[in-house]
Amino acid sequence: MRTVGVEEELLLVDPDSGEPKAVSAAVLARAAQDDPGQDVFQKELFGQMLEFATHPQGDMAELGAEIVRCRKEAARLAGEIGCAVAALATCPLPVPLSLSAHERYAWMAEQFGIAIQDQFVCGCHVHVSVESDEEGVAVLDRIGPWLPVLRALSANSPFWQGQDTGYVSFRSRLWARCPSAGPTELFGSAERYHRRVTDMVASGVILDKGMVYLDARLSTKYPTVEIRVADVCLRAETTVLIATLARALVETAARDWRAGRPPFDHSVSLLRLAAWHAARFGLDQDLLDPATMRPRPAAQVLRSLLEHTGEAVALSGDAAVVEETVAELLRRGNGAREQRLLLERTGSLRDVITECVRRTQD
């Protein structure tokens, strides 16, 4: 069974006002005080953000339990300095940003100018183990058209700078302004993939391989495919669903590769349109069908994804949980819909944030 690891980025906020607080250094100091060798919590680009990473897990129930533990531990550490954590992919309120102290971040601020502010966003990255770079690139070539569906499921960023953006995943639109972000053409082999990455770094536009911010890539640290399209999810069970479907996509793609079944050969232009459409409407209207790149009702495209990955999901024993979680997500809506309903009910973006603090840990 392929192992899965998850990285989640959280906002650090005042528990009463919802205002983001640049206290990540203090939170990390608390974590190091409790466990000097801890490797779960890490700093992020801005001081108002905190990242955690799970260990690789083969069992999705264990992965879910670890995500919940990490969220609760992040909340405890933040609470000790009068702060709270919220799983929001963008901050609904305007906020002055505080860049974390790091040579890499200083380079990015100098290179990208004011656009660095667009990166005050929180994502969810899923790592799925692969046997080799060759298998990993074969997977990358086959999962791209399905990634907008994961984006639609995870969408959790409707508000930005005090206003409704009209998008369900505005985080992904901000992130798309990075010069190395987004979907890619087919690579065909590991050699071509690595040559492309080398050429991108040699351009001087990005600093190193870690800044190759593709929607999905070979990890620079682990023997995994890293899928980077999801917003951080408001609820932990949605994160587990994204991770489960990501593993199933990787397993299905690897099987198709071994069986000699070719990938869809869609242009990057069409893949970008599918990504935009998912970020704009999510589950509320159509998605672009991964096979045809034509609009279909979101529920039908989601059903196609479940059918496409059905054998892999059944093999891992997760079919019942996936069906139940998808049904609940379609009924309740993703994080973006929940946030908009909260604003409709309370009339206050600050109240939206403080309620999302609670839901982050539920």
UniProtKB/TrEMBL annotation:
The keyword Ribosomal protein does not apply. It catalyses: L-cysteine + L-glutamate + ATP = gamma-L-glutamyl-L-cysteine + ADP + phosphate + H(+). Its EC number is 6.3.2.2. The keyword Ligase applies. Keywords: ATP-binding, Ligase, Nucleotide-binding. One of its GO terms (biological process) is modified amino acid biosynthetic process. GO terms for molecular function: ATP binding; glutamate-cysteine ligase activity. Pfam families: GCS2. It comes from the Bacteria. Belongs to the glutamate--cysteine ligase type 2 family. YbdK subfamily. ATP-dependent carboxylate-amine ligase which exhibits weak glutamate--cysteine ligase activity. PANTHER family: GLUTAMATE--CYSTEINE LIGASE 2-RELATED (PTHR36510). HAMAP family: Glu_cys_ligase_2 (MF_01609). This is Putative glutamate--cysteine ligase 2.
